TrEMBL record:
Keywords: Membrane, Transmembrane, Transmembrane helix. It comes from Selenobaculum gibii. Residues 114-124 have a biased composition (Basic and acidic residues). Residues 107-132 are annotated as: Disordered. The chain crosses the membrane at residues 25-46. This is Stage III sporulation protein AG.
Amino acid sequence: MSGILSKWRNINEQYFMPILKGNIFNMRVVWVGVIGILLLILGNVLNGQTNLEEKENTNLKTSVINQSTPINEEQIIENKIVQLLSKVKGAGNVAVSVTLEGGSSKETAQNITKETKTTEEKDTSGGIRTTTESKESNQILMSKENGMDKAIVIREVKPEIKGVMVVADGAVNSNIKADLTKAVATGLGIASYKITVLPKQK
């Protein structure tokens, strides 16, 4: 608001005061011009504020979308198998359901510090008593990523596949059913007894 008032004083001193002193226009015409200029300035300021608010809201939505929960392991495997089996000749429409044993886990890098302290004491009979104290501390190693601390992951252990069910149009044919079973077993590296292939209901 102080910026608007400053602009108004400059305009008033440079343009309108000389006009009023010279009696070129009457007061009514001058004030109409003043009001028009003020409305233009206010309109530009408000428009700038609106654009700023819209930009901030957009950034907030993008941040929320980027932080949303990732797709789970079952869905990742199911999508992979559906894409694979849909390329098998005669398979037709395919649906896949995967059951996992437990969840995934990550093994992080750690700085392990071990301390051993040995103390020898003489007892009243002249013997020596030895006491050993051990202390171990673990500290997870971190790295900077996008300005944030993140644990260094050495290995990620995927959950074990407990079973896979496949429903396909072409499973009515025993040869195609065998091909689908073999494709799943090879693609996932699991035993065939964990795989069930059924024909889709007509």
